[in-house]
């Protein structure tokens, strides 16, 4: 079993993935990006990541978020929706330092669930 913290970015931009990889991977975290359609097809195959970053402005953002109830979640959107207890919400346009600080805060917590 891999003990490195896993951060999954769903429907984020490639820039978001690149920034997170550049900052978090040297610190020992694994960062991966997936499209929500792929997540829905492979949901049973995906390990439960420590932190999931989800773009709610994508068509299936809310449904995708519900698949990761056992992970810490950061929801990013242009309009704030209801957020479950423990989830974090960032309004668009967000700043990368804000996203990174939120991820680091969540990585310091024990796994959700």
User: What sequence of helices (H) and strands (E) makes up the elements?
Assistant: EHEHEHEEH
**Discrete helix count:** 4
CATH class: Alpha Beta
CATH superfamily: Response regulator
Mean pLDDT: 81
Rg of Cα set: 13 Å
End-to-end C-alpha gap: 18 Å
The major pleated sheet works out as:
5 strands, parallel
Structural class of the secondary elements? alpha/beta
Q: Which runs of at least 5 residues are low in confidence (pLDDT < 50)?
A: none
Strand order of the largest sheet: 2-1-3-4-5
Give the DSSP E fraction (strand runs of 2 or more residues).
Answer: 15-25%
SS elements, strand count: 5
Q: Tell me, what's the shape?
A: globular
Instruction: Please give the share of residues in helix.
Output: 25-40%
In total, how many domains does the architecture comprise?
1
**CATH fold label:** Rossmann fold
Explain this structure to me?
The chain is an alpha/beta fold. The chain has a single domain (6-107), classed as Rossmann fold, CATH 3.40.50. 31% of the residues lie in helices and 22% in strands. The protein is built from four helices and five strands, in the order βαβαβαββα. It has helices at residues 14-24, 36-41, 61-66, 96-107, and strands spanning 6-10, 30-34, 51-55, 72-77, 88-91. It has a five-stranded parallel β-sheet. The protein is globular, with a radius of gyration of 13 Å.
Topology:
Layout: E1 6-10, H1 14-24, E2 30-34, H2 36-41, E3 51-55, H3 61-66, E4 72-77, E5 88-91, H4 96-107
Parallel strand pairs: 1-2, 1-3, 3-4, 4-5
Short description:
With 113 residues, the protein is α/β, with parallel strands linked by helices.
């Amino acid at each position: 079993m891999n003990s490195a913290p896993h951060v999954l970015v769903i429907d984020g931009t490639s820039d978001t993935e690149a920034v997170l990889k550049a900052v978090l991977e040297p610190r020992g975290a694994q960062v991966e990006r997936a499209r929500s359609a792929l997540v829905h097809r492979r949901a049973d195959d995906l390990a439960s990541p420590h932190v999931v970053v989800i773009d709610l402005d994508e068509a299936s953002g809310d449904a995708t978020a519900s698949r990761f109830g056992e992970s810490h979640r950061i929801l990013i959107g242009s309009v704030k929706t209801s957020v479950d207890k423990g989830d974090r919400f960032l309004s668009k346009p967000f700043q990368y330092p804000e996203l990174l600080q939120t991820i680091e805060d969540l990585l310091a917590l024990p796994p959700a669930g």
